[in-house]
Amino acid sequence: MRITRSLEFQAGSKEEKLPYAAEDFPYVASRAELDYYRESSVPWHWHSAIELFYMESGGIRYHTPSGTAVFPAGSAGMVNTNVLHMTEILTRREENVQLLHIFDPSLISGGHGSAIEKKYVMPVITSSQIEMISLDPDRPEQAAVIDLIRGAFLPAEDEIGYEIKIREALSQIWIRLFELCGPLIQESVQPADRTVDKVKLMMAYIHEHYAEKISTPELAETAFLSERECYRAFRNHLHMTPAEYIRSYRMQTAGQLLADTRMPVTEVGYACGLGNASYFGRNFREFTGYTPLQYRRKWQNKDKT
After folding, report:
1. Is 284 in a helix, a strand, or coil?
2. Where in the numbering of this chain does the HTH araC/xylS-type domain appear (predicted)?
3. pLDDT exceeds cutoff 60 at 127
């Protein structure tokens, strides 16, 4: 099982870079040790894979455009393909560990256009009603699915038939999830909300130009939206204004530079579009609770442990 203590993203995007061991088997089991993440939250991102997870200890809160869900230890859930989401740990008073199955839907459906894909996979991954599924251990029908998710981490990668066992386990989980979310699939089909694609375009623009001055009209133009539509899109999908997202991304990037490089603090501020050392230091402390130097010492020392 892969140990994860941070996330990697595609260049110029917030699409997560998926660490598949082999392209011909798009699956990875991951143990996310969340207390090693540099912040108490993982920023808004998405990925084309299915994310199945089990909370081994601690707790986590997921945010998606349509709402929020809390997952304490012993619970589990699924995040659908290409769904924007962010997470935050509930407390640092206990160890926060999340076990994840990350896999491409093709692992279950097989060849494109197969009967399995048409009947059981596409209805779920294309449903605008299903961003996330929550599984509660106190509900027997959901507890059974949680047991399957936990059990699927048991096969060892070096044992004979590992790939077949994983595919079989994920298929069993999938049909249970399909049954649980049946009512959502049967609801009147709503057209896919294309606004989320425009939000991703604007996020990508911010990630490429964060060091520069970015105005709301300029940002809106990249997605062919009006200022008002741009503001509404960020509010509806990310629950923040464009300016708040720009500031948040700049601070996250500054934190990464402070922890991973020896770049002088003054240069970090300018490199992230946050101005001179005084302005940068004041805003960084407001955002993280640390001065830039305190933050650098904290995470450079922690990375050595």
Report:
1. helix
2. 200-298
3. yes
Structure-token match 């375009």, residue found: 201
The residue to which tokens 């393909």 are assigned: 81
In three-state secondary structure terms, 70 is strand
What H or E segment, with its residue span, contains residue 175?
helix 162-180
pTM score, two decimals? 0.83
Helices (H), 96-161: 106-109, 115-116, 122-125, 140-151
Rounded CA-CA distance 73/207 in Å is 34
Q: Parallel, antiparallel, or unpaired: how do β-strands 85-89 and 41-45 relate?
A: antiparallel
Whether 83 contacts 63, CB under 8 Å: no
Order across the sheet with 132-135: list the strands. 2-4, 27-33, 97-103, 50-57, 76-79, 132-135
Phi, psi angle pair for 299, to nearest 5° = -85, -30
The candidate with the shortest Cα–Cα distance to 203, out of 163, 154, 246, 151, is: 246
Token pair 């609801």 is found at: 187
Q: Is 284 left (phi over 0), alpha (psi -120 to 50) or beta?
A: alpha
CA angle 36, 38, 41 (to 5 degrees): 95
- For the chain, what is the mean pLDDT? 88
Task: Say how far residue 270 (Cα) sits from the centre of its chain.
Answer: 28
